[in-house]
Amino acid sequence: xxxxxxxxxxxxRCPVNVxxxxxxxxxxxxxxxxxxxxxxxxxxxxPTARGPVRERAPLxxxxxxxxxxxxxxxxxxxxxxxxxxxxxxxxxxVQVLTDVLANGxxxxxxxxxxxxxxxxxxxKQGLGVFLRRHLALLAVxxxxxxxxxxxxxxxLYAVLASLLLATARLTVRGLLTLAAVLGAWWLGxxxxxxxxxxxxxxxxxxxxxxxxxFAGQSYPQVVSGRVAEFLGDLIGGSLYNGAWLLAxxxxxxxxxxxxxxxRPHEHPRLLRGLALWGLLTGLPLGILLAWLNTRxxxxxxxxxxxxxxxxxxxxxxGYVGLIGLLTVRDRLGPLRAFAAGGRVAMSNYISQSLIxxxxxxxxxxxxxxxxxxxxxxxxxxxxxxxxxxISAWWLRRFGTGPLEWxxxxxxxWKV
Length: 415
Known about the structure:
Layout: H1 19-22, H2 58-80, H3 89-101, H4 105-125, H5 127-147, H6 154-160, H7 172-200, H8 219-258, H9 268-292, H10 298-328, H11 338-343, H12 345-360, H13 373-398, H14 402-411
Helix pairs in contact: 2-4, 2-10, 2-12, 2-13, 3-9, 3-13, 4-5, 4-8, 4-10, 5-6, 5-8, 5-14, 6-8, 7-8, 7-10, 9-10, 12-13
């Protein structure tokens, strides 16, 4: 779990009793027709007229767009080649804010949304479309890893999505039970490993998870190194993170079963519970993570992993609850701008990698290891925000993102 924004991230038990809230028969409010709970690249391709698109449920796209911005803020550490525990002054202040508010938080939202979309796709489109889509995502993610950045998550998600096939017949209670068991087991093992290292007083330095880059390294050299790493990294990441990510996927699938994201107006009590207990749990754990990330010893690095992901899930659920309540009250305001970014999330995600590696990697801008957290996170924030109006313009012009268009055509045999 050494990579910050790449393969090493996973969901924890929800601090509110979701069983008693998500399972009851809820009243069916009279709402305008919304699109099916599918990811942006999964709906069957249809002729798209230029201009405004058909009405969509806003919450999933807004969450996806917000998560994408938060992910690039955290990934900036890896792109720039900085070590958290070496930051001082303003850089340390920015690092602390990133750890408390973003680290592990937005990647958890992204993973839950992936599970929500994948489970909905399997239910509505069937096994054939489900398998073709994830094979297409595996191809996209593999190329992203090899050609652009070692922290790709798309290929890992595509492989682990196959585990959702075993959960297709589970009830909401069953999905949440499985998520709780897997999450508690994964977090428990991480804590045991960390405390064991602490008790042994290991003097080894902290691992970084950063790519092995050096000045003057050419693009072919970097790519050849990633080719050699890819399969082992994918298999190792699947084994290490599989239980945790399946837990996150199951939480997302459960949310899809009860209509939490498409019909948030039916679930104000659940959203309030998530917002309250998620943030009350996640923020203290974020502070603990920030403290651990000021320490350069091996044990602190190990303990930071379960603290990051457990607190990350709690805060992620809190953010979902908070944004869901704003949706219910029709007070999304400026957050609506994130919906456009969320609708072209895959294209934006890979664009972020292209821009950031072009600035930092030795075959281009060669700034790797030269920037502190303040400058790196500031750059990432600028890139993420600039993507929002570009995404809105692109959608008005073309109706879907370029990679989303490509995956749809491959999945539905229209290439």
